[in-house]
Amino acid sequence: MTENSIKIRPTLTEMEIGDTCYFPVRKMKSVRAQASELGVILDRKYKTRTNRQDRTISVTRTA
Fold first, then answer.
1. What one-character-per-residue DSSP string does the chain give?
2. Residue 51, Cα to own-chain centre: how many angstroms?
3. Mean confidence (pLDDT) of the chain
4. Which residues contact 52 (CB under 8 A, 6 or more apart)?
5. What pLDDT shows up at residue 5?
């Protein structure tokens, strides 16, 4: 079983203010950790939201 997966760190690094990206909910722990870490390193703010129905986690760059 092969699956094309989006790399978390490069995706978050390339985001502009107002951009939103989506990841599978099974990557929730990694996505939140990367968003927190990159926020501090790059002086940015990210907001995460979990959608249980769609089984996704969204990340929005807010600053």
1. -------HHHHHHHPPTT-EEEEEGGGHHHHHHHHHHHHHHHT--EEEEEETTTTEEEEEE--
2. 13
3. 93
4. 25
5. 76
4: tokens are 């094309």
- Torsions phi, psi for 43 (to 5 deg): 55, 55
Neighbours of 58 (CB within 10 A): 15
Say what the pLDDT of residue 6 is: 83
d(CA 1, CA 49): 28
d(CA 62, CA 4): 27
Q: Which two tokens stand for residue 33?
A: 């950790």
What is the pTM assigned to this prediction? 0.88
pLDDT of 2 over the 50 cut: no
